[in-house]
Amino acid sequence: MTHRPAPTDIAIHPLIAGRWSPRAYADRAVAHAQVVALLEAARWAPSAYNVQPWRFVVFEKAQDPEAFARAFELLVPFNRSWNENAQVLIAVLADTLNAKGEINASAAYDAGAAAMALLLQAHAQGLAAHAMGGFDANGLKQTFDIPERFTALSVISIAHHGDARALPASLAERELAPRARLSLEDIAQFGAWRETR
């Protein structure tokens, strides 16, 4: 299932409503040109003072299977279990220092914006993309010699959409379950902060 628009209370852009995080992947290579387009979308994200603190380490199964395998092993076992057909892994990093060597307090926020642009571009290209926090961040930095100033925030797996029925029953159920989010009342305050439940 590739088309699962969110049941929004208010109409929003279809690209945003349609983006979701699938786990059913097809075992078919993703073209390098498509991967480059994802990175180009991320490149144009907004950032404080236009510092652009996002960095990406890209692992393409078809281009460099050895590096891909090393990155794949850094996923937690649960994420490895459903990513067997993933074709691309992209580590999302934030440069925690600015050009003066000072702490950039908005680095993670800005890198998150770039990652979201990448995810939206993947959806626009008809690709399945899933951002994960379940990976060995320290292992990633050590394995790939990433300098200390960079924080590893997430790993995004990318592939062509697959058949949810091929997933284990528990994951197939999650894949096909109705999409849900907290209500607007739970996440937004107008005019002042009020205690929520």
TrEMBL record:
Offer an example of a GO molecular function term for this protein: oxidoreductase activity
Domain Nitroreductase: from-to ranges: 16-152
Alphabetized, the UniProt keywords read: Oxidoreductase
Answer whether the UniProt record assigns the keyword Oxidoreductase to this protein.
yes
Which superkingdom is the protein from? Answer: Bacteria
Which protein family is it in?
A: Belongs to the nitroreductase family.
Entry protein name: Nitroreductase family protein
